[in-house]
């Protein structure tokens, strides 16, 4: 039973970190620098002061074991790897993408995607996966997954810029519909 409780705690800490390192740092009195970094000691103190005590060991465990590598530690600082809804500059250089990238979604979004393509919504960039398996897992978080193929090679040739985050997520401003290949859900 203890292992299940430990796993639940790890998930809870991960979600807390995501909320405050990607979306609402001010909610617990944090100020991220322009690259999204904050001192680990400041994060732990702010969390504790707001009723959510996290030990350094728990933080290190969450960072090390997160399957999506959502967080990065550099020296005494931590940041979310991507997915911010607040204004930050991850400092990622443009990168040449593979010929095809993938996006996981669910069927209820397909009509809008067919009409408008992929848009960042409340994030700074559209997130793309390097393989179908990862995109399937991403789509499955919201229901039965549908995986869209993105002609990233053609997009780049046409002047679209791609960047890749530390955890292997490909980022671009938007994906117009003409670069998408739709396959119907099974």
Summarize the structure in words:
- This protein has 186 residues and is an alpha+beta fold.
- It has two domains: 2-80, Arc Repressor Mutant, subunit A (Orthogonal Bundle), CATH 1.10.10; 101-181, Alpha-Beta Barrel (ADP-ribosylation fold).
- It is 34% helix and 18% strand.
- The protein contains six helices and nine strands.
- The chain has helices at residues 2-23, 40-49, 56-65, 110-116, 132-140, 152-157, and strands spanning 38-39, 71-74, 77-80, 101-106, 126-128, 145-150, 162-164, 170-172, 180-181.
- The strands form three sheets. A three-stranded antiparallel β-sheet has the order 1-3-2. Strands 4-6-9 form a three-stranded antiparallel β-sheet. It has a three-stranded antiparallel β-sheet with strand order 5-8-7, with no helix packed on it.
- The model has no long low-confidence stretch (mean pLDDT 91).
SSE topology sketch:
Layout: H1 2-23, E1 38-39, H2 40-49, H3 56-65, E2 71-74, E3 77-80, E4 101-106, H4 110-116, E5 126-128, H5 132-140, E6 145-150, H6 152-157, E7 162-164, E8 170-172, E9 180-181
Antiparallel strand pairs: 1-3, 2-3, 4-6, 5-8, 6-9, 7-8
Number of DSSP helical runs = 6
Specify the CATH class of the largest domain. Alpha Beta
- Percent of residues in helical segments? 25-40%
Measured between the Cα atoms of the first and last residue, the distance is 37 Å
Q: Could you say what the CATH architecture of the largest domain is?
A: Alpha-Beta Barrel
- Find the CATH topology of the largest domain: ADP-ribosylation fold
Q: Note the beta-strand portion.
A: 15-25%
Strand order of the largest sheet: 1-3-2
Runs in which pLDDT lies below 50 for 5 or more consecutive residues are none
Radius of gyration: 18 Å
Main beta-sheet strand count, sense and barrel state: 3 strands, antiparallel
InterPro entries: Ptrans_KptA/Tpt1, RNA_2'-PTrans_C, RNA_2'-PTrans_KptA, RNA_2'-PTrans_N
Keywords: NAD, Transferase
EC number: 2.7.1.-
GO molecular function, one term: transferase activity
């Amino acid at each position: 039973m203890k292992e299940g409780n430990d796993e639940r705690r790890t998930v809870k800490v991960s979600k807390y970190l995501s909320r405050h390192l990607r979306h609402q740092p001010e909610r617990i009195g944090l100020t991220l620098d322009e690259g999204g970094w904050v001192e680990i000691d400041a994060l732990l103190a702010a969390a504790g002061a707001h009723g959510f005590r996290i030990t350094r060991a728990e933080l290190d465990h969450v960072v090390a074991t997160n399957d999506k590598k959502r967080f990065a530690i550099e020296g005494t600082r931590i940041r979310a790897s991507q997915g911010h809804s607040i204004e930050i500059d991850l400092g990622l250089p443009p990168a040449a993408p593979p010929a095809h990238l993938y996006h996981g979604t669910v069927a209820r979004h397909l009509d809008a995607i067919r009409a408008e393509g992929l848009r960042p919504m409340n994030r700074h960039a559209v997130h793309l996966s390097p393989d179908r398996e990862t995109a399937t897992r991403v789509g499955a978080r919201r229901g039965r997954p549908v995986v869209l193929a993105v002609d990233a090679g053609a997009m780049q040739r046409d002047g679209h810029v791609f960047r890749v985050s530390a955890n292997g997520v490909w980022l671009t401003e938007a994906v117009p519909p003409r670069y998408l290949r739709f396959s119907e859900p099974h």
